[in-house]
Design a protein that fits this description.
The protein has 748 residues and is α+β, with helices and mostly antiparallel strands. 40% of the residues lie in helices and 11% in strands. Helix 15 crosses helix 18 and helix 19 crosses helix 22.
Length: 748
C-alpha cells in the first residue's frame, strides 16, 4: 500500500490544527456542560450558600444557667468564633489543613498527590479535602458522602463558592459547629460537654488535641476502647502543633505524657435529665396554639433551630426534690409491697395483664391468631407476670414547688421514676385529676371566715346526717366525743363533720367554688356538700397554685416556667418580664392570715406533725387522704415557698392498705425532706428565720398521737375523725346566729 504524504493531504496543516483545536475546545465545553449537568443536582443554591441552616439543638437552661436538657435531631449547639479555644483552632489547622489561610477552597497540590495515589491503588481511597470542602459536606447534604468523582466535583465547586461568600474565620466557625465528634455530638460545644463534662473554654491543650484527633475516626476513639490508639492519635495532633510552632518542644514532651480521662456518657451533664417532666411540659407549652405571648416561637423548629430557653427551674432544688422522693419511697414502697396481696383480686390482675399485653408493640403488629399466641405465652411467663405486678403497684408521685411571691416553678417531679425517657410518661403534677380529700378544706374554712366566723368559733363535731335535694341522706361520721369544737381545732385534726356543717349551714358549695376558682383551681367542681371533704377532682399543680394565696396574704399568683427565649444568635424572642406577673386579688388578707395561723397548727401538732421530724422552721399546710386510702396529699408552704405532694397509683383500684397511706405519712415526709434540704443550703438563700407576716398564734389543743384516720362512710372521700387521744375542744365562743349564713349571689 502506498503511503500518503502530508503534502498530498487535501487539508492544509493550519486548517487541521484549527480543527483539532476547535474539537478539543468543543470536547472541553461538552465535558464542562456534562459535569455541570451531573453535579448541579447536588449543588446548594445561592440562598443556601448565603444562609446556611445547620440543625442545632435547642437548649433548656435552669435559672442558674445550667443546661438541664435539649431538644435535637442532631445534638449540636452553636459557638461564636471568639468563644472557640485557641489550642483547638491551632490543632485543627495543624492537623487537617495547614494551608487553610492561603488556599481558595481547594488545594491543587493535595489534589494531584491524592489523584496519583488513587491511580496507583486502582480505587478512590485517598482524599484531598480542605476544611472548606469538609464544611461543604457537613452543611449541604445533597453533596453526599459517597467516595465518587461526582461527589468530589460537587464538593470542590461548593468549597470555592463558600470561600467567595465567607471569611476564613467564618468558615472555621461554621465548620467547628457542624463537624461530627462521635457520641451523637455535632459541634465542639456539645463534644466538650460529653467527653470532658466542661465548657470548651475550660479545655486544656491535651484535651483540645484529643477532640481534634477524634475527627478522623470518631467511632474508634469515642469510648477509648483502644486506649493506646486514642493516645497515639492525640499525640499525632500535638506533634503537628509542635511542627507548626503552636507549642514548644518542651510543651509537646509534657503534653504527650498526660493521660486521657473521659467522662462516661451516662455521667455527662448533658446526657442526664434531672427534670424530664418539667422539660416536656415546656415543649408542650411551646407547641400549643392557645398561648398568644409565645406565638412568635411557633415559627421555629424546636429540634432544628437552636433556640435557648431560660427557665425558672432551680437545678439544686430539683436535685433536692428528686432526692426527697427517692429517700421517702425507698422504704415506703417496700412497706406497701409487703402489705399488698393479689390474692382475691383475680379480676383486677387479669385486667392489668390484658392492658400490659395489648400495649406491647409485638401484640399491636400481630394478626388475630398471632395475638392469641402472644397472650397465651405471656400469661404463662412468670417473669412477665411479676414485672406487670410490680409496675401496677408502683407508688407514683406528683411534686412541685413554686416561689410564693412570683409563681416561678422551682422544681417538679412527675413520677417516681427518673431518667430521660420518663419525659414521655404521665406527668402527675399537671396531667392527672384526683380527689384532694381534706387538703381542700382550707377553702371551705376560708369561705366560712369570710362569712363572719373566726378561728375560735364553735361548730358541732358529732355525726352529721344531711338530707340532699335528691332525697338521699349524706351521712358523715363525727368525732369520738362529739360536741362543739373550734374551727382551729377542727382543721388541725381534720374533723369531717365540722367541714360538712360549714358548707351546709354557714356557706354554700357555690361560694366555696367561687373562692377556689379565684385562688387558682381551674377544674370543674360540682356544687355539692361533699365538696367540703374534697370530692372534686383537681390536679396537684392547681392545688399548689391555690395555696399561694395564703403566704401572699390573699393574692393568687399564676405559676410559670419560661423566663426568656433566644434564637441561636442571642436575639430575644420572648421575655416573661415584659409580660409581667399574673397576680389577682383572691381572698381577704385577714382571712388568708387567719388560715395560715390555723394551718401552722396542722404542721406543729396536727395531722401533718411528722413534718417536724425533718423541718423545724416556719411552715403551714394541710394533709389530705381520700376514701379507702386511694390518694394521699400534703400541700404546704413557708413564707417564701409553696410546694405540694400527691402520692397514689395510676390504677385507682390499687390503694394503700392502712394508716400509712394517710397524707401525713405518705405525702408530708416528701415535702418535709425537700424543705429541709432547701433551707439548709446556703447557696439558695432561703431565710429560715423568716416568719409569716401579721399571723397570730391560734391555740388549737395538743398534738394527736395517732395522727389522722379515714372514714370509709359513703362514696365520698372522707379523711379524718378526731383520734381518741386528741382532746375535746373546750372553746366557749358561740356561733354566729343562723341569719349570718353566707348567701350565694347567684341564689339571691
Amino acid at each position: 500500500m502506498r503511503k500518503i504524504t502530508l503534502a498530498e493531504f487535501p487539508i492544509k496543516p493550519r486548517t487541521l490544527f484549527r480543527a483539532v483545536l476547535f474539537g478539543m475546545a468543543g470536547l472541553a465545553i461538552f465535558l464542562v456542560i456534562f459535569s455541570i449537568y451531573v453535579v448541579s443536582e447536588g449543588l446548594p443554591s445561592l440562598e443556601e450558600l448565603e444562609n446556611p441552616k445547620p440543625e442545632l439543638a435547642t437548649r433548656i437552661l435552669s435559672a442558674e444557667g445550667e443546661v438541664i436538657d435539649e431538644f435535637y435531631l442532631k445534638r449540636r449547639t452553636y459557638m461564636r468564633f471568639d468563644s472557640i479555644p485557641k489550642p483547638f483552632l491551632n490543632g485543627l489547622i495543624a492537623t487537617e489543613d495547614r494551608e487553610f489561610y492561603h488556599h481558595w477552597g481547594i488545594h491543587a497540590f493535595r489534589i494531584v498527590k491524592a489523584a496519583v495515589k488513587n491511580v496507583l491503588r486502582g480505587r478512590l481511597s485517598q482524599g484531598a479535602s480542605t476544611i472548606t470542602q469538609q464544611l461543604a459536606r457537613n452543611l449541604y447534604v445533597n453533596i453526599g458522602q459517597e467516595r465518587t468523582l461526582t461527589r468530589k466535583i460537587r464538593e470542590a465547586v461548593t468549597a470555592i463558592q463558600i470561600e467567595r461568600t465567607y471569611t476564613k474565620n467564618e468558615i472555621l466557625e461554621l465548620y467547628i459547629n457542624t463537624v461530627y465528634f462521635g457520641r451523637g455530638a455535632h459541634g465542639l460545644q456539645v463534644a466538650s460537654e460529653l467527653y470532658f463534662n466542661k465548657s470548651p473554654q475550660d479545655l486544656n491543650v491535651p484535651e483540645c488535641a484529643f477532640l481534634v484527633g477524634i475527627l478522623q475516626r470518631p467511632g474508634l476513639h469515642e469510648n477509648l476502647r483502644n486506649y493506646q490508639a486514642s493516645l497515639n492519635r492525640r499525640n499525632v495532633v500535638l506533634s503537628a502543633m509542635e511542627e507548626e510552632g503552636y507549642i514548644s518542644e518542651a510543651e509537646y514532651e509534657k503534653f504527650k505524657t498526660v493521660p486521657i480521662v473521659l467522662t462516661q456518657p451516662e455521667e455527662a451533664t448533658i446526657e442526664r435529665s434531672i427534670a424530664p417532666h418539667f422539660v416536656e411540659m415546656i415543649r408542650q407549652q411551646l407547641t400549643r396554639d392557645d398561648d398568644k405571648a409565645l406565638a412568635a416561637i411557633r415559627r421555629f423548629d424546636l429540634f432544628r433551630d437552636g433556640l435557648v430557653i431560660y427557665t425558672t427551674l432551680n437545678a439544686r432544688m430539683q436535685q433536692y426534690a428528686n432526692q426527697a422522693v427517692e429517700e421517702h419511697l425507698k422504704q415506703f414502697q417496700r412497706d406497701f409491697s409487703r402489705s399488698w396481696r393479689w390474692d382475691g383480686k383475680e379480676s383486677l390482675l387479669n385486667e392489668v395483664l390484658d392492658k400490659a399485653i395489648k400495649n406491647r408493640p409485638d401484640y399491636i403488629a400481630a394478626n388475630t391468631e398471632g395475638r392469641k399466641q402472644i397472650v397465651a405465652r405471656l400469661r404463662k411467663n412468670a417473669a412477665f407476670v411479676d414485672s406487670v405486678k410490680i409496675e401496677a403497684t408502683r407508688i407514683q408521685v406528683g411534686f412541685a414547688s413554686i416561689e410564693a411571691s412570683t409563681g416561678e416553678i422551682r422544681s417538679m417531679v412527675g413520677s417516681s421514676i427518673f431518667g430521660k425517657l420518663s419525659r414521655y410518661t404521665l406527668n402527675r403534677v399537671t396531667q392527672i385529676r384526683r380527689q384532694p380529700g381534706s387538703s381542700f378544706k382550707p377553702f371551705v374554712y376560708a369561705a366560712a371566715l369570710d362569712a363572719g366566723l373566726t378561728p375560735y368559733s364553735s361548730v358541732e363535731s358529732s355525726a352529721l346526717s344531711y338530707k340532699l335535694p335528691t332525697g338521699k341522706t349524706w351521712d358523715v361520721a363525727g368525732s369520738k366525743d362529739g360536741g362543739p369544737m373550734s374551727l382551729a381545732t377542727a382543721l388541725k385534726f381534720s374533723i369531717n363533720t365540722v367541714a360538712a356543717r360549714l358548707i351546709t349551714d354557714f356557706v354554700t358549695p357555690t361560694a366555696v367554688i367561687r373562692l377556689a376558682k379565684r385562688c387558682g383551681i381551674k377544674s370543674d367542681l360540682m356544687a355539692v356538700p361533699s365538696l367540703a371533704l374534697g370530692s372534686g377532682e383537681v390536679s396537684p399543680m392547681e392545688m399548689i397554685t391555690a395555696f399561694t394565696v395564703f403566704p401572699n396574704e390573699g393574692m393568687s399568683v399564676e405559676p410559670y416556667a419560661i423566663e426568656r427565649i433566644e434564637d441561636r444568635f442571642g436575639n430575644v424572642l420572648y421575655d416573661h418580664a415584659k409580660q409581667g406577673l399574673t397576680i389577682s386579688d383572691a381572698m381577704n388578707p385577714r382571712v388568708a392570715k387567719q388560715m395560715t395561723g390555723m394551718m401552722r397548727n396542722v404542721v406543729n401538732s396536727g395531722t401533718a406533725g411528722r413534718v417536724r421530724n425533718w423541718f423545724p422552721y416556719e411552715a403551714a399546710g394541710k394533709t389530705g387522704t381520700t376514701n379507702d386510702f386511694a390518694d394521699a396529699w400534703f400541700v404546704g408552704y413557708t413564707p417564701q415557698l409553696v410546694a405540694g405532694v400527691w402520692t397514689g397509683f395510676d390504677d385507682q383500684r390499687i390503694k394503700f392498705t392502712g394508716w400509712y397511706g394517710q397524707g401525713g405519712s405518705a405525702a408530708a415526709p416528701i415535702w418535709a425532706r425537700f424543705m429541709q434540704k432547701v433551707y439548709k443550703d446556703p447557696l439558695l438563700q432561703y431565710d429560715a428565720k423568716r416568719r409569716f407576716k401579721g399571723v397570730e398564734n391560734i391555740g388549737a389543743g395538743s398534738m394527736s398521737k395517732d395522727g389522722e384516720s379515714t372514714d370509709a362512710e359513703g362514696a365520698v372521700p372522707l379523711e379524718n375523725t378526731v383520734p381518741a387521744s386528741a382532746p375535746k375542744d373546750s372553746t366557749k365562743k358561740e356561733l354566729p346566729p343562723p341569719e349570718s349564713k353566707l348567701k350565694d349571689k347567684d341564689e339571691e
